[in-house]
Design goal:
This protein is mainly alpha-helical. Helix content is 61%, strand content 0%. It is built from 18 helices and no strands.
Length: 334
Protein backbone atom coordinates (compact mmCIF):
# COMPACT_ATOMS: atom_id res chain seq x y z
CA UNK A 1 0.00 0.00 0.00
CA UNK A 2 2.95 2.31 0.53
CA UNK A 3 4.49 1.68 -2.88
CA UNK A 4 2.25 3.98 -4.99
CA UNK A 5 2.45 6.80 -2.43
CA UNK A 6 6.25 6.83 -2.11
CA UNK A 7 7.81 10.01 -3.52
CA UNK A 8 4.44 11.87 -3.44
CA UNK A 9 3.59 14.79 -1.18
CA UNK A 10 0.43 14.79 0.92
CA UNK A 11 -1.61 16.83 -1.53
CA UNK A 12 -0.75 14.41 -4.33
CA UNK A 13 -1.51 11.36 -2.17
CA UNK A 14 -4.87 12.71 -1.05
CA UNK A 15 -5.83 13.71 -4.58
CA UNK A 16 -5.04 10.22 -5.87
CA UNK A 17 -6.13 8.00 -2.99
CA UNK A 18 -8.46 10.11 -0.86
CA UNK A 19 -8.20 10.46 2.94
CA UNK A 20 -5.98 7.94 4.72
CA UNK A 21 -8.90 6.17 6.37
CA UNK A 22 -10.33 5.35 2.93
CA UNK A 23 -7.22 3.83 1.34
CA UNK A 24 -7.75 0.53 -0.42
CA UNK A 25 -5.48 -2.21 -1.64
CA UNK A 26 -3.56 -1.31 -4.82
CA UNK A 27 -4.48 -4.43 -6.81
CA UNK A 28 -2.45 -5.39 -9.87
CA UNK A 29 -3.27 -7.78 -12.70
CA UNK A 30 -5.00 -10.88 -11.41
CA UNK A 31 -6.14 -9.12 -8.25
CA UNK A 32 -2.72 -9.52 -6.62
CA UNK A 33 -1.18 -7.00 -4.25
CA UNK A 34 2.43 -6.55 -5.35
CA UNK A 35 4.82 -6.14 -2.46
CA UNK A 36 7.81 -3.82 -2.47
CA UNK A 37 11.55 -4.38 -2.16
CA UNK A 38 11.06 -4.18 1.62
CA UNK A 39 9.07 -7.42 1.70
CA UNK A 40 11.31 -9.05 -0.90
CA UNK A 41 14.35 -8.42 1.27
CA UNK A 42 12.46 -9.47 4.40
CA UNK A 43 11.85 -12.80 2.68
CA UNK A 44 15.54 -13.03 1.78
CA UNK A 45 16.47 -12.57 5.45
CA UNK A 46 13.79 -14.93 6.72
CA UNK A 47 14.52 -17.69 4.22
CA UNK A 48 18.26 -17.37 4.82
CA UNK A 49 17.76 -17.79 8.55
CA UNK A 50 15.40 -20.71 8.07
CA UNK A 51 17.98 -22.39 5.84
CA UNK A 52 20.85 -21.68 8.25
CA UNK A 53 18.74 -22.86 11.17
CA UNK A 54 18.33 -26.33 9.72
CA UNK A 55 22.04 -26.98 10.18
CA UNK A 56 22.91 -30.65 10.57
CA UNK A 57 19.70 -31.57 12.36
CA UNK A 58 17.44 -31.93 9.36
CA UNK A 59 13.83 -30.82 9.53
CA UNK A 60 14.01 -30.50 13.32
CA UNK A 61 16.30 -27.50 12.84
CA UNK A 62 13.49 -25.09 12.14
CA UNK A 63 12.38 -25.03 15.77
CA UNK A 64 13.60 -24.23 19.24
CA UNK A 65 17.04 -25.05 20.54
CA UNK A 66 18.08 -26.80 17.32
CA UNK A 67 17.61 -23.60 15.39
CA UNK A 68 19.44 -21.48 17.97
CA UNK A 69 22.43 -23.80 18.01
CA UNK A 70 22.68 -23.82 14.21
CA UNK A 71 22.50 -20.03 13.85
CA UNK A 72 26.16 -19.10 14.23
CA UNK A 73 27.95 -16.08 12.77
CA UNK A 74 29.46 -18.27 10.05
CA UNK A 75 26.23 -20.03 9.06
CA UNK A 76 24.14 -16.86 9.17
CA UNK A 77 26.62 -14.81 7.13
CA UNK A 78 26.88 -17.49 4.45
CA UNK A 79 23.11 -17.90 4.15
CA UNK A 80 22.45 -14.16 4.08
CA UNK A 81 25.09 -13.64 1.41
CA UNK A 82 23.54 -16.40 -0.74
CA UNK A 83 20.00 -15.06 -0.43
CA UNK A 84 20.97 -11.41 -0.88
CA UNK A 85 22.78 -12.25 -4.11
CA UNK A 86 19.77 -14.29 -5.23
CA UNK A 87 17.56 -11.25 -4.56
CA UNK A 88 19.98 -9.09 -6.55
CA UNK A 89 19.40 -11.20 -9.68
CA UNK A 90 15.70 -11.91 -9.16
CA UNK A 91 13.73 -10.63 -12.20
CA UNK A 92 11.10 -9.37 -9.75
CA UNK A 93 13.71 -7.10 -8.16
CA UNK A 94 12.22 -4.14 -9.98
CA UNK A 95 10.48 -2.31 -7.12
CA UNK A 96 12.81 0.70 -6.71
CA UNK A 97 15.40 -1.10 -4.56
CA UNK A 98 17.83 1.02 -2.61
CA UNK A 99 21.19 1.77 -4.17
CA UNK A 100 23.08 0.83 -1.02
CA UNK A 101 21.57 -2.65 -1.03
CA UNK A 102 22.30 -3.08 -4.74
CA UNK A 103 25.91 -1.93 -4.48
CA UNK A 104 26.66 -4.03 -1.42
CA UNK A 105 25.08 -7.14 -2.93
CA UNK A 106 27.18 -6.72 -6.08
CA UNK A 107 30.25 -6.66 -3.85
CA UNK A 108 29.04 -9.63 -1.80
CA UNK A 109 28.71 -11.65 -4.99
CA UNK A 110 32.44 -11.20 -5.60
CA UNK A 111 33.11 -13.29 -2.51
CA UNK A 112 35.07 -10.65 -0.64
CA UNK A 113 34.74 -10.31 3.15
CA UNK A 114 31.41 -8.74 3.95
CA UNK A 115 33.09 -6.03 6.02
CA UNK A 116 34.72 -4.91 2.77
CA UNK A 117 31.53 -5.28 0.72
CA UNK A 118 29.29 -3.19 2.98
CA UNK A 119 28.63 0.50 2.30
CA UNK A 120 30.41 1.64 5.41
CA UNK A 121 28.78 5.07 5.87
CA UNK A 122 25.19 4.18 4.99
CA UNK A 123 22.42 4.09 7.55
CA UNK A 124 19.52 3.83 5.10
CA UNK A 125 16.33 2.13 6.14
CA UNK A 126 17.18 -0.83 3.91
CA UNK A 127 19.06 -2.09 6.97
CA UNK A 128 16.00 -2.49 9.18
CA UNK A 129 13.00 -2.68 6.85
CA UNK A 130 13.87 -6.39 6.44
CA UNK A 131 14.91 -7.37 9.98
CA UNK A 132 11.61 -8.39 11.58
CA UNK A 133 11.89 -12.17 10.93
CA UNK A 134 14.81 -12.25 13.37
CA UNK A 135 12.39 -11.47 16.19
CA UNK A 136 10.14 -14.42 15.41
CA UNK A 137 12.69 -17.25 15.60
CA UNK A 138 12.05 -19.28 18.76
CA UNK A 139 14.83 -20.21 21.13
CA UNK A 140 17.28 -17.35 20.53
CA UNK A 141 19.03 -15.65 23.42
CA UNK A 142 18.89 -11.87 23.65
CA UNK A 143 22.51 -11.58 22.53
CA UNK A 144 22.03 -13.98 19.65
CA UNK A 145 18.96 -12.12 18.42
CA UNK A 146 20.82 -8.81 18.65
CA UNK A 147 23.88 -10.21 16.87
CA UNK A 148 21.83 -11.61 13.99
CA UNK A 149 19.80 -8.40 13.66
CA UNK A 150 22.96 -6.31 13.49
CA UNK A 151 24.78 -8.68 11.15
CA UNK A 152 21.99 -8.78 8.58
CA UNK A 153 22.09 -4.97 8.55
CA UNK A 154 25.86 -4.75 8.46
CA UNK A 155 26.21 -6.86 5.31
CA UNK A 156 24.94 -3.87 3.35
CA UNK A 157 24.86 -0.87 5.73
CA UNK A 158 27.98 -0.31 7.81
CA UNK A 159 26.94 2.76 9.80
CA UNK A 160 26.45 2.11 13.54
CA UNK A 161 22.98 3.63 13.49
CA UNK A 162 21.91 1.10 10.85
CA UNK A 163 23.00 -1.68 13.19
CA UNK A 164 21.41 -0.22 16.30
CA UNK A 165 18.14 0.63 14.55
CA UNK A 166 17.91 -2.89 13.14
CA UNK A 167 18.51 -4.41 16.56
CA UNK A 168 15.91 -2.06 18.07
CA UNK A 169 13.38 -2.82 15.32
CA UNK A 170 13.77 -6.54 15.94
CA UNK A 171 13.39 -5.95 19.67
CA UNK A 172 10.20 -3.94 19.15
CA UNK A 173 8.78 -6.83 17.15
CA UNK A 174 9.87 -9.32 19.80
CA UNK A 175 8.32 -7.26 22.60
CA UNK A 176 4.99 -7.01 20.81
CA UNK A 177 4.95 -10.72 20.02
CA UNK A 178 5.55 -11.43 23.71
CA UNK A 179 2.71 -9.36 25.11
CA UNK A 180 4.20 -5.89 25.59
CA UNK A 181 1.46 -3.32 26.06
CA UNK A 182 1.28 -0.36 23.72
CA UNK A 183 1.95 2.09 26.54
CA UNK A 184 5.08 0.26 27.62
CA UNK A 185 6.56 -0.17 24.15
CA UNK A 186 8.62 3.02 23.76
CA UNK A 187 9.78 3.04 27.42
CA UNK A 188 10.97 -0.57 27.07
CA UNK A 189 12.72 0.27 23.81
CA UNK A 190 14.47 3.18 25.50
CA UNK A 191 15.64 0.91 28.30
CA UNK A 192 16.93 -1.66 25.81
CA UNK A 193 18.79 1.02 23.84
CA UNK A 194 20.40 2.43 26.97
CA UNK A 195 21.47 -1.04 28.12
CA UNK A 196 22.90 -1.83 24.68
CA UNK A 197 25.03 1.33 24.22
CA UNK A 198 28.32 -0.30 25.15
CA UNK A 199 27.77 -3.73 23.60
CA UNK A 200 29.75 -4.39 20.42
CA UNK A 201 29.08 -7.92 19.20
CA UNK A 202 32.53 -8.77 17.92
CA UNK A 203 31.66 -12.41 17.25
CA UNK A 204 29.03 -11.23 14.78
CA UNK A 205 30.58 -8.01 13.47
CA UNK A 206 34.29 -8.81 13.39
CA UNK A 207 36.46 -5.79 12.63
CA UNK A 208 33.66 -3.64 11.19
CA UNK A 209 34.21 -0.86 13.74
CA UNK A 210 37.92 -0.65 12.90
CA UNK A 211 37.16 -0.57 9.18
CA UNK A 212 34.80 2.33 9.90
CA UNK A 213 37.71 4.20 11.46
CA UNK A 214 36.65 3.78 15.08
CA UNK A 215 39.38 3.27 17.64
CA UNK A 216 36.89 2.01 20.22
CA UNK A 217 34.20 -0.50 19.12
CA UNK A 218 32.02 0.41 22.10
CA UNK A 219 32.07 4.10 21.16
CA UNK A 220 31.31 3.18 17.54
CA UNK A 221 28.12 1.32 18.40
CA UNK A 222 27.13 3.80 21.13
CA UNK A 223 26.88 6.53 18.49
CA UNK A 224 24.18 4.50 16.73
CA UNK A 225 22.24 3.85 19.90
CA UNK A 226 22.30 7.54 20.80
CA UNK A 227 20.79 8.44 17.43
CA UNK A 228 18.09 5.83 18.00
CA UNK A 229 17.34 7.22 21.45
CA UNK A 230 16.82 10.67 19.96
CA UNK A 231 14.48 9.21 17.34
CA UNK A 232 12.46 7.44 20.04
CA UNK A 233 12.18 10.75 21.90
CA UNK A 234 10.86 12.42 18.74
CA UNK A 235 8.19 9.73 18.33
CA UNK A 236 7.20 9.92 21.98
CA UNK A 237 6.91 13.70 21.81
CA UNK A 238 4.73 13.53 18.68
CA UNK A 239 2.46 10.93 20.31
CA UNK A 240 1.70 13.27 23.19
CA UNK A 241 -0.52 15.30 20.85
CA UNK A 242 -1.89 12.09 19.25
CA UNK A 243 -3.20 13.60 16.03
CA UNK A 244 -3.95 10.62 13.78
CA UNK A 245 -4.70 12.94 10.88
CA UNK A 246 -1.21 14.45 10.84
CA UNK A 247 1.28 13.22 8.25
CA UNK A 248 3.54 10.78 10.16
CA UNK A 249 6.56 11.97 8.20
CA UNK A 250 5.88 15.55 9.27
CA UNK A 251 5.29 14.47 12.86
CA UNK A 252 8.39 12.27 13.26
CA UNK A 253 10.55 11.98 10.14
CA UNK A 254 10.58 11.02 6.48
CA UNK A 255 12.03 7.59 7.23
CA UNK A 256 14.73 7.38 4.57
CA UNK A 257 17.28 6.54 7.27
CA UNK A 258 17.04 3.62 9.64
CA UNK A 259 16.28 5.29 12.95
CA UNK A 260 13.62 7.52 11.39
CA UNK A 261 11.94 4.61 9.63
CA UNK A 262 11.65 2.84 12.98
CA UNK A 263 10.42 5.91 14.86
CA UNK A 264 7.88 6.92 12.20
CA UNK A 265 6.58 3.35 11.95
CA UNK A 266 6.19 3.21 15.74
CA UNK A 267 4.28 6.48 15.61
CA UNK A 268 2.02 5.22 12.80
CA UNK A 269 1.27 2.07 14.79
CA UNK A 270 0.74 3.73 18.17
CA UNK A 271 -1.18 6.81 17.02
CA UNK A 272 -4.04 4.51 15.94
CA UNK A 273 -3.85 2.50 19.18
CA UNK A 274 -2.25 -0.45 17.48
CA UNK A 275 -5.08 -1.20 15.09
CA UNK A 276 -3.47 -3.27 12.33
CA UNK A 277 -5.36 -2.05 9.28
CA UNK A 278 -5.31 1.57 10.41
CA UNK A 279 -1.57 1.39 11.11
CA UNK A 280 -0.79 0.26 7.56
CA UNK A 281 -3.10 2.84 6.01
CA UNK A 282 -1.75 5.67 8.19
CA UNK A 283 1.87 4.72 7.44
CA UNK A 284 1.20 4.39 3.71
CA UNK A 285 -0.52 7.78 3.60
CA UNK A 286 2.70 9.64 4.44
CA UNK A 287 5.01 11.94 2.52
CA UNK A 288 8.25 10.11 3.25
CA UNK A 289 9.50 6.59 2.60
CA UNK A 290 5.97 5.29 2.81
CA UNK A 291 6.56 1.69 1.81
CA UNK A 292 9.31 1.15 4.38
CA UNK A 293 7.33 2.92 7.11
CA UNK A 294 4.26 0.83 6.30
CA UNK A 295 6.28 -2.40 6.14
CA UNK A 296 7.49 -1.85 9.69
CA UNK A 297 4.17 -0.58 11.04
CA UNK A 298 2.49 -3.65 9.56
CA UNK A 299 5.12 -5.93 11.11
CA UNK A 300 4.50 -4.39 14.53
CA UNK A 301 0.76 -4.84 14.12
CA UNK A 302 1.18 -8.44 12.98
CA UNK A 303 3.47 -9.23 15.90
CA UNK A 304 0.94 -7.78 18.32
CA UNK A 305 -2.23 -9.31 16.91
CA UNK A 306 -1.32 -12.34 14.80
CA UNK A 307 -2.40 -13.31 11.31
CA UNK A 308 -6.11 -13.72 12.00
CA UNK A 309 -6.46 -10.02 12.74
CA UNK A 310 -5.87 -9.17 9.08
CA UNK A 311 -8.85 -9.07 6.70
CA UNK A 312 -9.03 -12.30 4.67
CA UNK A 313 -9.15 -10.32 1.43
CA UNK A 314 -5.81 -8.73 2.31
CA UNK A 315 -4.15 -12.06 3.06
CA UNK A 316 -5.58 -13.85 0.04
CA UNK A 317 -4.46 -11.17 -2.42
CA UNK A 318 -0.89 -10.92 -1.15
CA UNK A 319 1.98 -11.65 -3.50
CA UNK A 320 4.36 -14.35 -2.20
CA UNK A 321 1.66 -15.61 0.16
CA UNK A 322 3.12 -19.12 -0.06
CA UNK A 323 6.61 -18.00 0.92
CA UNK A 324 5.37 -15.83 3.77
CA UNK A 325 3.19 -18.68 4.98
CA UNK A 326 6.12 -21.08 4.94
CA UNK A 327 8.12 -18.80 7.23
CA UNK A 328 5.18 -18.39 9.57
CA UNK A 329 4.65 -22.15 9.73
CA UNK A 330 8.31 -22.83 10.46
CA UNK A 331 8.49 -20.53 13.48
CA UNK A 332 4.95 -20.51 14.82
CA UNK A 333 5.14 -21.64 18.45
CA UNK A 334 1.44 -21.16 19.22
Amino acid sequence: MGYPTEFLDMAQITAKFGPWREMGLPLSAGDVVRVTDDTQMMLAVGEALMEAGIGDSGARGVRGADTAAALTPVSVEAALRKHFVSWLHDPDNNRAPGQTCLNACVALERGIPWQEATVINSKGCGANMRVTPVALIPGLSRGQRAGIAQLQAALTHGHPTALAASDLTAHATWLLAHGCSLGDLIPQLRTYAQESRGSYYGDWLGDLAARAGASDPAAYIAFGWDECLRALDTAASALRTKDADRDPSAAVGAGWVAEEALATALYSFLVVDGDARSAVMRASHSSGDSDSIAALAGAFAGAKHGVLFWPPEWREALEYEDRIGALAAAWDTV
